[in-house]
Amino acid sequence: MPKVSDTARTLACTSLVAIAAANSAHAAALEQAVPSTIRLLYQEGRYIEFGVTYTDPDQSGSGVSVPPNPLGLPAGRYSGNTGDVFQDRWSISGAYKADLNDKLSYLVTFDEPFRADTRYGPAAFSLGSFSYPVYDGSEANLKTYQITGALAYDVNPNVKIFGGVRAQRLDAQAAISFVFDYSVDAEDKWGWGYLVGAAYELPEYALRVALTYYSKISYSLDTTESSLLTGTNDTETDVDTPQSVSLDFQTGVNPKTLIFGSVRWVDWSQFSISPPDYEVAIEQLLGQPRPLVAYDDDWWTYSLGVGRQLTDTLAGALSVTWEPSVGGVMTTLGPYDGRTVGTASLTYEVGQIDITGGLSYGVLGDTENILDTQFDDGKVWGAGLRVGYTF
What we know:
This protein is mostly beta strands. It has one domain: Porin. The chain is about 10% helix and about 60% strand. A hairpin with a 4-residue loop joins strand 8 and strand 9. About 5% of the residues have low confidence.
């Protein structure tokens, strides 16, 4: 294997941040930011960075199947289109890394790991001469803010072990208009989790393999629910943001070229948001209970890319991220199943400053919700910018 120059390794590895940022454009289920723990722990010396990401997904659904119901709506297959249900969004991130001695280092990061921004407009669906705005007013707003602190220890020149704690705040509101005009508002709350992992590196070849486990974070949320069926009540809703495992790898193939990728598993099958009054309302409407948000299976994400040193101060990277479809009925508040996204990025390094920018474009997988609305032809694009400074 050919050895890789320090400059090529630094620039090619740095370009990965734009890929992580731009690929945050609708990651698996509600996840919008993939952790960058490994990249940051391998920054040399003291290092600080700030990043910003813009994401613009587009997804619409057609048709509604209305079963016999207590709302008095005629049962049957309605025609119509929801229009775009996803809102564009901005998110920020930041990090600080420093060495305590020649073997021990620490890292503090800020990011926004999970998010939902879904809103349905007043588009009407029709059955013969009858017309009804089935989804008007349905929306979801979920945000999380996370602070992570981690320590890393160099067991020897090739092996690093690390672990830390995560503090995560969750803020959520949702409404499903066709379920007796239902809405729920959750009080903001902090939860706690941890991460642990290990990495192996051969620096002269830019070879690195790392495995990281992120625990679930549990919440018991004070919620206020309201519907025409149950009235307005103060309730309690348990939510766990899911555990996950990430395998990251990279290797130099010549002094100016790096191949990199990752495999990520997220335990979405164990995730659900099921407020108690919603369970009552949806069972009355459809004849069976169903959580407000839930997924039938775990989600896997695969990424592969190549980084190339273009000049002494400029590097570029191309990557593809793929999430296979998991099947089943998806939540109305996040209607897509899988994605394929391509990303291009450039990193410019001048002195102690590096600037990285990336663009992403991809397609969202087709799916359907509990009213048999068919969501297809979804797409997403995103842009990321990150500025880092090495002391």
